[in-house]
Amino acid sequence: MKKIFILMPFLIKIGLSQAYQVGDVLSMEHQNTPLISCANTQGDLFLRDYNGALNGGDYTVTLINTFTSWCTYCQQEILPVNQLFEEHYDRGFRVVSFGRQWYSPYSCSDWAELGATYPLIDDDSLMVWSWFGLGTVPQNIILDHNMIVQYSVIGYNHSELVNILEQLLSELPTVSTKTESFLPGEFEVTAIFPNPFNPTTSITLELNHETDVNLIVRDISGKIIDSKQYFNLPAGKNNIKWDGKNFASGLYFFQLSAENWTQTIKGSLLK
């Protein structure tokens, strides 16, 4: 069954003639603009973080969503979008949601508790909304790995969004850091325990010969929040410990790499 939400009456006058249209490339000025995170990630966020040409080859497809805290249609979108986000994260799907008019009735943290685990951004200034705004909420925009607007619609059409998402994910460059290129039986991450954890966890990996291993830790937004290098790990079973005492509760992605091998495993920090 198609899920279609169409909103009509909530029009706000902004410079709509300057809004991005399908086929437009997001400007470097906008990619480099700091975005104020209010839930599910730490510190400022930048849309350049989702540009594979600028972030070291981590190619992604990004859904930009705008909403107000009083919009019931926006609330109905949270769970299906969050399901897509968690199901396709490892394939390169990202979601960034921009909210405004907080406490009418929900705060940003309240909105997260409705089921959103993707980054929430405070856009009370209407800054980002003015970049993409078509005059109402919710609005959903999809950017491809080149930061080109491939989709922009008022409301939410689940089947339509899934179709374009599948197409764009299938077109991502294969050099994405999310691609597992290891040879089975040579290198493998076998476990993360405990999971969930507070504040430490241990990642177990099997190596068939001595090698150096790199660890990159990303938060739910895809931002790198920690990195470590381990030299001359011996063949056999190795345990790498990670301490999350300086980080907020949330879902984290642990990317381990060695030689031509890369693998990512998820872990939940619960404080």
Structure description:
The chain is of the alpha+beta class. The chain folds into two domains: 4-170, Glutaredoxin (3-Layer(aba) Sandwich); 187-269, Sandwich (Immunoglobulin-like), CATH 2.60.40.2550. The protein is 17% helix and 35% strand. The two termini are 39 Å apart.
Query: Can you tell me the CATH architecture of the largest domain?
Result: 3-Layer(aba) Sandwich
Record field, number of beta strands: 15
Main sheet strand line-up = 2-5-4-3-6-7
Largest sheet: 6 strands, mixed
The mean pLDDT is 84
Question: Keywords, please?
Answer:
35% strand, 271 residues, four-stranded antiparallel β-sheet, single chain, Immunoglobulin-like, 17% helix, 2 domains, Glutaredoxin
Summarize the structure.
The protein is an alpha+beta fold and 271 residues long. Helices cover 17% and strands 35% of the residues.
Give the SSE map:
Blueprint: E1 4-5, H1 28-31, E2 37-39, E3 61-68, H2 72-88, E4 93-100, H3 108-113, E5 120-122, H4 127-132, E6 139-143, E7 149-154, E8 156-157, H5 158-170, E9 187-193, E10 200-207, E11 211-218, E12 224-233, E13 236-243, E14 250-258, E15 261-269
Parallel strand pairs: 3-4, 4-5
Antiparallel strand pairs: 1-8, 2-5, 3-6, 6-7, 9-10, 10-13, 11-12, 11-14, 14-15
